[in-house]
Amino acid sequence: MKPASMEAEPAGLARLVPTQKRSRERYERILECAAAMIAENGSEAFRMSDVVERSGVPFGSLYQYFPDKTAIIGTLAERYNAVGRVCVQQELAAVENRADLRPALWRIVDGYYRMFMDEPVMRDIWQATQADRALQQLDEADGEFLAGLLLDTLRRIAPRRDPAALAAVARLTMTLIAAAVRHAITLKPKEAERMITLFKRMLPEDTAALA
């Protein structure tokens, strides 16, 4: 039985998430230091011993929360995923008809691009998710969640369309948005902005009509 001060991490790869203030502060310190090291040198450059040295958290406490550095990266990835989900939910919740959808998708594209640019560590974390199978699964689950949000919107504004076709459109649309943004962040700023603008123009005026 786990201590009353701990609970299982519901959406990440942490072993335990503390609930008591002092333990929670230590947990957050670990993540803060790991994020700083990733931002400085990339996800491949830090070791668990580096986290111990920088955070001042003993090895025993570190491993109590995170079994390895993949768990740390995964937990950070899930936090950024959660921020992205909130943004997508807010934009899609405002869609009242089919004419509203394209502008909402544009704002989602812009929002994701700004988030990656404002938080450079996200780029390193995303690259790390592509190199590890467990982290790939987190990324895939996030994509499915976002596709589900779009599917709910499509069903609301186009109730007569075939549900299976709407599901395919939702999944493909969110996959393309993610791919476009992740490609853009590898480019120089001006080129990236041109690419993002071009991609947004390529999105159909009536996405629901594709189904």
From TrEMBL:
**Gene3D superfamilies reported in the protein's UniProt record:** Tetracycline Repressor, domain 2
The organism's taxonomic lineage, starting at the top: Bacteria, Pseudomonadati, Pseudomonadota, Alphaproteobacteria, Hyphomicrobiales
Q: Name a GO molecular-function annotation.
A: DNA-binding transcription factor activity
Coiled-coil annotation reads none
Which Pfam family name is an example for this entry? TetR_C_22
Sorted keywords for this record are: DNA-binding, Transcription, Transcription regulation
Name the domain of life: Bacteria
Name this protein carries in UniProt: TetR/AcrR family transcriptional regulator
Q: Does the keyword Transcription apply?
A: yes
| Keyword field contains ATP-binding | no
Q: Which residues bind DNA?
A: 47-66
Where does the HTH tetR-type domain lie?
24-84
- Could you tell me which PANTHER family the record lists for this protein? HTH-TYPE TRANSCRIPTIONAL REGULATOR BETI, HTH-TYPE TRANSCRIPTIONAL REGULATOR RUTR
